[in-house]
Amino acid sequence: MPKVTVLKHPLIEHKMSIIRDKNTSTKSFRENVSEVGALITYELTKDLELQAKEIETPVTKTTVYELKKPVVIVPILRAGLGMVDGIHDMIPSAKVGHIGLYRNEETLEPITYYAKFPQEIKNGCVIVIDPMLATGGSASAAITKLKEAGATDVRYVGLVGCPEGVERLQNDHPDVPIYLAALDERLNEKGYIVPGLGDCGDRLFGTK
Ligand SMILES: O=P(O)(O)OC[C@H]1O[C@H](OP(=O)(O)OP(=O)(O)O)[C@H](O)[C@@H]1O
Ligand SMILES: O=c1cc[nH]c(=O)[nH]1
Ligand SMILES: [Mg+2]
């Protein structure tokens, strides 16, 4: 089973308190989602491989260490876009791929409408982003598409998950570690996470 890491950090808890509040403005919601993305990146990347390189500081020659493999960030549209800037600020060399999925509101099955990945997915570390891990159908379908395109080192990052989504992702992709800011109680009858934060895409983009 892949590891599930639920981050425990006062700054993440505080930002989640703002994100979950239904009275938070679109601007503040967007800023806090991106900032939690940046904070999760620290934990998410702590096992990335390094390679040695010789450089000169203003004082002397020395050995420094840089990331060995390329990093590719792949947000699941739309809501995944909200965490891209925070993660990209931490890893400016990362390439960004995109996958567009939406859930059929009745069946909750994900429908793919767009996919564009850089070639580095084949030899790089691929970070799939979707703030909400609800049934897990969207994250699982996105990762399947990435693997079909050649990705081998994939990790998933989200804001809020629930037991149903974690179980689905673990079963479908046992090799993919999961990083979340919070693991909530359950899904409701409409497929929303409880207590959750509502519809993340709508709250990010002001569409409701
Ligand atoms: O785990 P799942 O049950 O698949 O649900 C999670 C998905 O639902 C939401 O997307 P939505 O379908 O609302 O599309 P949007 O991001 O374009 O709003 C969310 O952004 C996830 O992609
Ligand atoms: O609670 C949920 C579940 C799926 N998608 C969302 O945006 N929110
Ligand atoms: Mg979506």
From TrEMBL:
InterPro entries: PRTase-like (IPR029057), PRTase_dom (IPR000836), Upp_B (IPR034332), UPRT (IPR005765), UPRTase/APRTase (IPR050054). It catalyses: UMP + diphosphate = 5-phospho-alpha-D-ribose 1-diphosphate + uracil. GO terms for molecular function: GTP binding; magnesium ion binding; uracil phosphoribosyltransferase activity. The keyword Coiled coil does not apply. Its cofactor is Mg(2+). It is an enzyme of class 2 (transferase). GO terms for cellular component: cytoplasm. Keywords: Allosteric enzyme, Glycosyltransferase, GTP-binding, Magnesium, Nucleotide-binding, Transferase. Allosterically activated by GTP. Residues 6-207 form the Phosphoribosyltransferase domain. HAMAP family: Upp_B. Belongs to the UPRTase family. This is Uracil phosphoribosyltransferase. It comes from Acholeplasma hippikon. The gene is upp.
